[in-house]
């Protein structure tokens, strides 16, 4: 067997790490082809080459699926992972070693005194494998390959579908594209999906956290945003206009750390909102005030949907713009000057409908195409430029604050009450306690944001219509397969190896967890799914 022993698993994860697959690079494009060749070493896939497939994820990227299909089984576990990693600028002069774990570990030993005590101790202990992707999440892919090989060798009476995708670290384009492929594969091969088994690593909850966590759900993330369009003026006559930055300053203060969107479930609480990006859309410098600025906010969700968030957000913007107007008018009275106008608040959908009546669909399509076709803008910038351009055709509405959504959107997913997940939870705790003296803790909402957001969706929720109609790039450069996600309705659990410092210079994998503990635990989980009836 190729990936059975601890030594073989270490060699495999080092090989996967060496295939540099940073998001947006040529390495991300090439990775699934290399993985396909590696999986093809197994005799099973030599005999069934049709069970390995590449799936288009856009921008020349592909996801990969590899199916182990047992003749008498329909129950199927989807082993899901992502192969892209974040970039390596923080490695500095050691960048050339970022994807060479053994060499990087040796280099860190030479400069161990440069690191904080906890990191230095881990370097010198030899218990950790350092390098970009060791923890997040090349070890997870290696563990899934190990499971597939073992299932083949021992003829396990269950189907395993290894699915690994690109782009998880940015917009999850890989997983959003994969949902449709999962439907196709189920139909083509008669698969009954019973479980999504993700193996993202166990993330620490606080500095120096020694606990091992597994996850029965994943937190959601949504980005309500505003385009502020004021009234331009010369800086020598500031009150003849209304500066967009003045408008934005009121909302930024209200949104940052706001508890309006806070949720608590299973004793866990959503992190507070922050302004993720704020920028002036005025490209040049001049003595003219800026009449358009954009604010993008990060809001985490557990049980709230897009409709809930947009309703609260729009109401907050209305209230805040009223406060801004009152403050502005008070200044005008103090300076004995007439205000430049009253601030309106509109949703993007309302702006779209207003322009539709005034100019028709052809003009709207022209504006949307003009910006979605540009490769120099990301989806967030495209959204703001589309909105901004629409307002220029409707200047009678300004000063104006337009509420909208910008990508990405990660719906919250929680399977904590699912009977199969509950039985697996009990297995995980008993297995780790009995065999290793580890008392694992269940987290109901994975706090790292993950592709698991797209594996299922509340079958009764239609709030995604609110998201679609208020996202300017929807259907052009960004989509979410909500209906297909609703069709899946498959429980999810995340069980992965222990590590530390994801996305940092000192990202590292705990070797025993990666090579010994988690492989045995995942095997126990799969065998449990073979026999349990829930």
UniProtKB/TrEMBL annotation:
The name this protein carries in UniProt is M20/M25/M40 family metallo-hydrolase
Q: Which SUPFAM superfamilies match?
A: Zn-dependent exopeptidases (SSF53187)
Query: Which terms does the record give in the GO molecular function aspect?
Result: hydrolase activity
Keyword Lipoprotein appears in the UniProt entry: no
User: Which taxonomic lineage is given here?
Assistant: Bacteria, Bacillati, Bacillota, Bacilli, Bacillales
Print the keywords alphabetically: Hydrolase
Superkingdom = Bacteria
| Species, as recorded | Salinicoccus hispanicus
The record, for InterPro entries, names: Peptidase_M20, Peptidase_M20A, Uncharacterised_RocB
Q: What would be one Pfam family of this protein?
A: Peptidase_M20
What Gene3D superfamilies has UniProt attached to this entry? Answer: Zn peptidases
